[in-house]
């Protein structure tokens, strides 16, 4: 059976990246991205829909994102979907996160200089 799992997004960070280290010593960066979609509703009015997505970036890409990006900054990213499952005290829970595979910085730094590391970073 064939399958395909790929996500491509351009959005803005919803919070500052959080960098931590796994028990095996691998860096992992967690952050959120907001993605907007504009459309016309049935009455012809333009509406906007926002999706908030959780992203995980492992290894060097995660370290780079944590170093250079902050809340509100735009990013282009490519990754795959991963479903996490766990049980809390009341029920079984599920959450889908995007595991980052490549990314590219967009825009300029706050001081209007281009980012030094402005290129796609493979995982």
Structure description:
- The protein is mostly beta strands.
- The chain has a domain at 7-80 and 99-105: Nucleic acid-binding proteins (OB fold (Dihydrolipoamide Acetyltransferase, E2P), Beta Barrel), CATH 2.40.50.140.
- The protein has one helix at 60-68, and strands spanning 7-13, 18-21, 27-40, 46-58, 74-87, 92-105.
- Strands 1-3-4-6-5 form a five-stranded mixed β-barrel.
- Strand 3 (27-40) and strand 4 (46-58) form a beta hairpin.
- The chain is globular, with a radius of gyration of 17 Å.
- The two termini are 26 Å apart.
- The model is unreliable at 116-123 (pLDDT under 50).
Kindly summarize this structure in a few lines.
The chain has one helix and six strands. With 123 residues, it is mainly beta.
Number of helices: 1
Please name the CATH topology of the domain at 7-80 and 99-105: OB fold (Dihydrolipoamide Acetyltransferase, E2P)
Largest sheet: 5 strands, mixed, barrel
H and E string? EEEEHEE
Oligomer: single chain
């Amino acid at each position: 059976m064939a399958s395909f799992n790929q996500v491509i997004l351009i959005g803005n960070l919803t919070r500052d990246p959080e960098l931590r280290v796994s028990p095996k010593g691998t860096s992992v960066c967690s952050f959120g991205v907001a993605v907007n979609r504009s459309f016309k509703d049935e009455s012809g009015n333009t509406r906007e829909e926002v999706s908030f997505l959780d992203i995980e970036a492992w290894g060097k890409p995660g370290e780079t994102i944590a170093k250079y990006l902050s809340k509100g900054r735009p990013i282009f990213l490519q990754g795959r979907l991963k479903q996490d499952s766990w049980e809390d005290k009341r029920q079984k829970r599920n959450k889908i996160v995007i595991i980052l595979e490549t990314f590219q910085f967009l825009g300029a730094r706050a001081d209007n200089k281009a980012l030094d590391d402005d290129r796609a970073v493979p995982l």
